Amino acid sequence: MSDWHTSTLTQLAAGLRARKFSSVELVRAFLDRIDASQAALNAFISVTREQALSQAAAADRALAAGAGGALTGVPIAHKDIFCTQGVRTTCGSHMLDNFVSPYDATVVAKLRGAGAVMLGKTNMDEFAMGSSSETSFYGPVRNPWNPQLVPGGSSGGSAAAVAARLVPAATATDTGGSIRQPAALCGITGIKPTYGRVSRFGMIAFASSLDQGGVLTASAADAALMLREMAGFDANDSTSVDTPVPDYVAALEQPLAGLKVGLLREFFDQGLDAHNEQRVREALKLYQQLGARLTEVSLPNLPLSVPVYYVVAPAECSSNLARFDGVRFGYRCENPRDLTDLYRRSRGEGFGAEVKRRIMTGTYVLSAGYYDAYYLKAQRVRQLINADFTRAFGSVDVLMGPTTPTPAFAIGAKTSDPITMYLNDIYTIGANLAGLPAVSIPCGFVQELPVGLQIVGPHFSEARVLNAAHAFQRATDWHTRVPPGYA
Amino acid sequence: MYDFALVFSLRHARREPPMALTREQIASIATLARLDLSSSEIPVYQDSLSRILEFVGALDRAETTDVAPMSHPLPGLSQRLRPDVVTEQDRHEQYQANAPQVAAGLYLVPKVIE
What we know:
The complex is a heterodimer.
Chain A lengths: L8 H9 L5 H19 L2 E4 L1 H16 L10 E5 L26 H8 L3 E6 L33 H8 L5 E6 L5 H7 L2 E4 L19 E6 L2 H11 L29 E5 L9 H16 L3 E5 L7 H16 L18 H12 L2 H14 L4 H22 L5 E5 L15 H5 L6 H6 L3 E9 L2 E8 L5 H14 L12
Parallel strand pairs in A: 2-3, 7-8, 7-9
Antiparallel strand pairs in A: 1-3, 4-6, 5-6, 5-10, 9-11, 10-11
Helix pairs in contact in A: 2-3, 7-15, 9-11, 9-12
Chain B lengths: L3 H8 L11 H10 L8 H16 L35 H5 L5 E2 L2 E2 L7
Antiparallel strand pairs in B: 1-2
């Protein structure tokens, strides 16, 4: 069969259960697609062919015995930030080039438990710090819509892999937009769940009050299927929330009529590309036709979310990355003179430029004399932004706006100026600061490049947000578009 | 009161920041962070950190008197407690397989005390 790669994850899972094809056949076909595109896209850091084929064979035996789970035999990939037992886990960094995880992340274990077959680990910005997947030690990821352009980041490998249909789904993480921004730039669906909804155990930490695991897929229905298996309480994550996981798949078909949609006024201000804005406004008009009621809402403190983020995230990163000391795991420099030299050179040589920049920024804002002026001030403004969201959700069910200011940009275009790069996440960071669930779905094209629509909901409203995304995808076919060359 | 124009205008703030960090400040931050920087890296971080600090200086425009700092997105979530019993197995050999240098179950580092 030649149309497996353009089938949805939901269709593939159903086909496997009906024994229309085997997991081994399916996995081999996707592995071949990964191999064929690796030179062009660089979406993967590791491909686990043999392990995948033996997992697929086991899945076929389970399916034959009628013992399959929701995802049995379905191929997926993991962002290389998730620890995978016995498989190298690099986080895109020279620091962890030789690190073979002794345990599985909870997300990895849960998806394996549901029967999913891992094909490999996807490329990413080093330690998830970046918005273009250019800071990886393993070289930049390329956008399948145009290889001269970035796929977005930090989950750019996962996004490029799903967009080019190298896998039907890939895990990802989002600290300031790292799921939604690459989803928008690659023309796919991505969900960042509520903070605490998906376990962070075994997910290499960047900024612990913001990091959240999620998934990239071709459709909202596929995201619902994946998230249902990934979400849930985990005693190994102290910030995991112990509330039941709703059946996101069952909630997809809820009628949209009467949905109160708030348009984020601040998102349509200066900085938004006029063509992007047009696509987003067309999408909003369609929502109106589908029965949603649109009102404009203002979150006056939201424009300060990028400055808040670039204090809070580096501060938490400088603390989290202190564990990389060249002693217990990871890179160690040659011939250290003494212990301090070992620490300093292992870290200086093991980390790339952007990671060092953020560690330095974080160290500065937390240092004596600056803590109040920067860190405490940012935490207070974070409270104001959070209050803006709470107020908005008093009158609307979901908020909508663009995911990014522009479509994908050229590789190398923004690497020289960190602030320009940071502003890519201007529309996505707010949801991380407030811990809210948010999706990005494709809503059209500008000069043959995809544009993303963002939907943000109150805490634990994943079912509502996915339902709204699914209703849009039933009425449009943007999410079925595959980049030329990968169809 | 705040708009994106404010934030976007900072993108074009190419002038020398008023509080540019000195080489000595960068070197001292690197010492605190235990990062060895080459002499060519120092001016790069001098420039970019100064600009980042100028950029985040926009926070000063927010009125935050009597606003409590927010450190966690789910307020009210308290730390869970568990019974004080052993739940982990001893897997030090597996963990130490990733260590640069071990001997007799111990991590080795350069001599600290002469």
